[in-house]
Amino acid sequence: MIFPEYRPRRMRKNKTLRAMIRETRLSSSQMIYPLFIMPGKGKKEAISSMPGVYRISVDQLKKEARACMDVGINSVILFGLPEKKDAVGSGAYAKNGIVQRAIQELKNQAPEMNVVTDVCLCEYTDHGHCGCLVGHEVDNDATLELLAKTALSHARAGADMVAPSDMMDGRISEIRSTLDENDFHMVPIMSYAVKYASAFYGPFRDAADCAPQFGDRRSYQMDPANSREALREATLDVEEGADILMVKPAVAYLDIISRLRDEFDLPIAAYHVSGEYAMIKAAAGKGWIDGERVMAETLLSIRRAGADILITYFARDMAKLLRERG
Ligand code: PBG
Questions:
Q1: Is 13 a catalytic residue?
Q2: Residue 106: what are its φ and ψ, rounded to 5°?
Q3: CA 271 – ligand 1 centroid, Å
Q4: Out of 95, 195, 281, 286, which one is annotated catalytic?
Q5: pLDDT at position 290
Q6: Prior bond to 249 cis, omega within 30?
Q7: 164 has which bridge partners?
């Protein structure tokens, strides 16, 4: 017998062979790009903790959608910064709210764009929590009705998919039945089924101005230590009618993505969140890592763990790179 008998290096010999046996690929069709919508006209504000990401006004959406579609990104997820906030987050479900106007603008200017909306109250409440309060507690059941109203107002404005991110119990069934009763049975729900109480959301909370004014989100978002509980959360959302299950954040929770992939047959999405993006940008900005390669390797790792869909601030950069390099 010749030593070594089998040589894995044979199949790594050149680019063509490597591409031929590649098990996981990235595709722009599986990426969703987040957009932050702010009031005003002609606005494009840089977000300092997220280089390359901006808050834009509704009138900028046509240009922004074009730029996405030019590189092959055909899905966006919308977050809104309302003109004013109140205790019950009424800006979230206002007929003429910031996200509702953004949906209409996108559907008028770029009808082929797949418009997903984040359904939550935290950007619209003056206390910054994801629901309405009784004392200092978020009132789960009273919040459900407001979330369903929000999702319905998004569907009415023309949203293609809604994505509840609040982590209240029972919200998927409440939203599903409200949509169905109003003839929106064809609008899918992408559930932030497994969302951890994570420090990686820091830059987002600056971007969307939604840091809680007291306490934290640990009484509704999940404890980072738990994985069996993730399966329970996902099971409930499947039973309640979710169409896609999301894990968030992504890289620190690859094991959770992998477990959900094994246990469920629904599409799995992963949110590569603001802090994960910011860390790569910061290190690349200092010249400590190769930003492009780390971006590609990171997104690939999330796909390899089992995610079908990636929500990422890198969507456009990654799509551009895929166009250039294949
Ligand atoms: C709103 C929401 C958050 C994110 C997405 N939707 C913030 C939070 O829960 O505190 C985080 C996204 C990111 O960090 O990129 N509920």
A1: no
A2: -65, -45
A3: 9
A4: 195
A5: 98
A6: yes
A7: 119
Mean pLDDT of the chain: 97
Tell me the backbone φ, ψ of residue 34, rounded to 5 degrees.
Answer: -75, 140
What distance in Å separates the CA atoms of residue 131 and residue 200, rounded to the nearest whole number? 21
Q: How many Å lie between the centroid of ligand 1 and the Cα of residue 16? A: 40
Residues 26-325: name the CATH superfamily.
Aldolase class I (3.20.20.70)
CA–CA separation, 203 and 208 (whole Å):
9
Joined tokens for residue 258: 């992998």
Query: Does ligand 1 come within 6 angstroms of the Cβ of 314?
Result: no
Q: Which two tokens stand for residue 85?
A: 């906030």
Domain assignments of the chain as residue spans, ordered by start: 26-325
Q: Which atom of ligand 1 is nearest to the CA of 313?
A: 15
Kindly provide the residue ranges of all beta strands, DSSP E only, lying in the chain, ordered along the sequence: 31-38, 44-46, 54-57, 75-80, 114-119, 133-134, 137-138, 161-164, 190-195, 244-248, 268-272, 309-312
CB 247 within 8 Å of CB 271: yes
Does residue 325 register a pLDDT over 90? no
pLDDT(279) > 80: yes
In the prediction, which pLDDT does 1 show? 72
pTM comes to 0.97
Residue 248 is a catalytic residue: yes
pLDDT in tens, 92-148: 999 999 999 999 999 999 999 999 999 999 999 999 999 999 999 999 999 999 999
**Annotated catalytic residue: which of 41, 95, 107, 248?**
248
Sign of CA dihedral 136, 82, 29, 250: negative
